[in-house]
């Protein structure tokens, strides 16, 4: 992966045919983020190497192929380009151009009910997506907390919330993730409760 792409979008995972092809890639509606404010385009990679590019005024049918691992060739209006495919997570696809320091970012909107037509829509989508993700992680996770100079736990956020509601502990007690060694992040119970 080029340093340019890695520095711009960290923590990318290469396209894995077994994991991504059928469940995350084929027949999914991928909205192109680049240039969305000027011209919205939805890319749908179909079986039999068919690529549909839907725009406001027309739908173009072209082709794509996968050669090795995560390298694709895509036929575009500008000719054939070679890209490497990466996922930021299951709903964000990045195609890194192999001949230029350029990449295209796509958001999977197949299971998203709102239209993405602008950068503001994308920001709302990402806020909603990551809020749900954080919420899910927080519910399952456990934390230690300090109260009256003594450490307790581990407890889930729900358990901490109950303790606060019963006035057993203060909502301003510091917490640390069970995987952390100290309280350097200065995270408090009230901060966790706001994410519920």
Descriptive notes:
The strands form two sheets. This protein has an eight-stranded antiparallel barrel with strand order 2-3-4-5-6-7-8-9. Strands 11-10-12-13 form a four-stranded antiparallel β-sheet. With 196 residues, the chain is α+β, with helices and mostly antiparallel strands. It has five helices and 13 strands. It is elongated, with a radius of gyration of 22 Å.
Features:
196 residues, alpha+beta, eight-stranded antiparallel beta barrel, elongated
In short:
With 196 residues, the protein is α+β, with helices and mostly antiparallel strands. It is built from 5 helices and 13 strands.
List the helices and strands and how they pair.
Layout: H1 3-8, E1 13-14, H2 17-25, E2 30-32, E3 41-46, E4 50-55, E5 59-66, E6 71-76, E7 79-89, E8 92-97, E9 103-108, H3 119-140, E10 142-147, E11 150-156, H4 157-165, E12 174-177, E13 187-188, H5 189-193
Antiparallel strand pairs: 1-7, 2-3, 2-9, 3-4, 4-5, 5-6, 6-7, 7-8, 8-9, 10-11, 10-12, 12-13
- Beta content comes to 35-45%
* pLDDT averaged over residues: 86
> Judging from the principal axes of the Cα atoms, what is the shape?
elongated
Major sheet strand order: 2-3-4-5-6-7-8-9
Number of strands: 13
Number of separate helices: 5
Order of helical and strand elements? HEHEEEEEEEEHEEHEEH
Distance N to C terminus: 37 Å
**Could you describe the largest sheet, including whether it forms a barrel?**
8 strands, antiparallel, barrel
CA-atom Rg in angstroms: 22 Å
Unreliable stretches covering 5 or more consecutive residues: none
Q: Tell me the helix content.
A: 25-40%
Tell me the structural class: alpha+beta
